[in-house]
Amino acid sequence: MPTELEELVGFIGHSNPTIRLTATEHLVPYSTANPAVFKVEDFKPIDTLKILTRDHPKISEHALTILVNLSADGDVLEKLATDDTFVRVVLIRVAHPEEQNANLFAMLLANLSKWDDLKSIIDRKQTPQEKLGSSDVVMDQLMDLFVKGSDGSYNKHANYDYLSYVFADLSKHAKVREYFVSKQSYDDAVPITKLKVFTEHKSDVRRKGVASTIKNVAFDKHSHPKFFDEEDIDILPYILLPLTGNEEYDDEESEAMLEDLQLLPPDKQRDSDPDIIQTHLETLLLMTTTRPGRELMRRIQVYPIIRETHKRVNHEGVTEACDRLVQVLMRDEAEPAEDKLIEGAPAKVESEDEENELVEV
């Protein structure tokens, strides 16, 4: 005989919406405590939950919460991410300006993006929402949702912060990294320049995802000249500012720094999350893989900023990253050096799930 829990799972597909609502609401805790109960009958409950994401907003909220949590399971993730129709529904719903659960759809998309083949999003197109005003390229739409969501100007129910985790995981792939550094025809903008302005945003999630995306894109050395060019991407101020506090530097150091880092206000604070600081330090380390990158960082006095960060952030990962970066910046360039990954630098692109757990609600 089925257990009471299994009977409850059976009610999520009931014809009565009140019963569906009660069942899904009571099942939310079991999506983390007992995920196996949703995998019975060849994942039939998962198929039902996928349908319920388009139900009444409250039922949809519970169904989405359950699926976000269950997608931590590899089998469930595969079941969701390989269902092209369902992925299309998620992409349409996350972009709808009146979708009350847009943030949950974004969280689910963040977890789905950990499935390697979801890199196909880069080639997807869909009719854009009129209010969004994007191109028909899905990546363009996600970028514009992320930007407009920061102040709630697109959907009053959503901030779209978790799309930053989508970008971080998709940027594992070379074609997506190329997208981020290439000017797009529909708005004549380079996508990563839309992300860089959020490295000091109030949202920890947004800052973390953006930092990881920038780091992943930095693995491609051919993009470094664009990163450094003040007339192009100009990324360095947006990486260095989160590393700076209200420290005072001597005149010689300060005058050589980038203009954005000079005369900072007395209440300036470095990023409160040491993991984000570590990510930015690792990005800088990746950018020292060419001699022009190393020479630029010496010229603009990156070392004093790293020195002060080392002093003030008590975190093993930050300390190690500072040490590695200082060794590179202080080494003798008298001997010709090959452009290669510096010893101790990250050796591969890291997905968001290698640095953080999957999103859970």
Task: Explain what you see.
It contains 21 helices and no strands. The chain starts with a helix and ends in a 6-residue tail after the last helix. The radius of gyration is 23 Å and the shape is elongated. The model has no long low-confidence stretch (mean pLDDT 93). The protein has 361 residues and is mostly helical. α4 (40-52) packs across α5.
Give a short account of the largest sheet.
Answer: none
Distance between the termini: 31 Å
Number of helices: 21
Total beta strand runs = 0
Q: Given the helix and strand composition, which structural class is it?
A: mainly alpha
Unreliable spans are: none
The gyration radius over C-alpha positions equals 23 Å
Give the helices and strands as they follow along the chain.
HHHHHHHHHHHHHHHHHHHHH
How much strand? under 5%
Helix content, binned percent = 40-55%
Shape, per Cα inertia axes: elongated
Q: Mean of the pLDDT scores?
A: 93
Keywords, separated by commas or semicolons:
single chain; mainly alpha; 54% helix; ARM-like; Protein HGH1 homolog
What's this entry about, in short?
Helices cover 54% and strands 0% of the residues. The protein is mostly helical.
Please render the helix and strand layout as text.
Blueprint: H1 4-10, H2 17-27, H3 30-33, H4 40-52, H5 57-70, H6 74-81, H7 84-94, H8 102-112, H9 138-149, H10 163-170, H11 174-180, H12 191-196, H13 204-217, H14 224-228, H15 236-240, H16 251-256, H17 274-286, H18 291-299, H19 302-312, H20 316-330, H21 352-355
Helix pairs in contact: 2-5, 4-5, 5-8, 7-8, 8-10, 10-13, 13-17, 17-20, 19-20
Pfam families: DUF383 (PF04063), DUF384 (PF04064)
Family: Belongs to the HGH1 family.
InterPro entries: ARM-like, ARM-type_fold, Hgh1, Protein_HGH1_C, Protein_HGH1_N
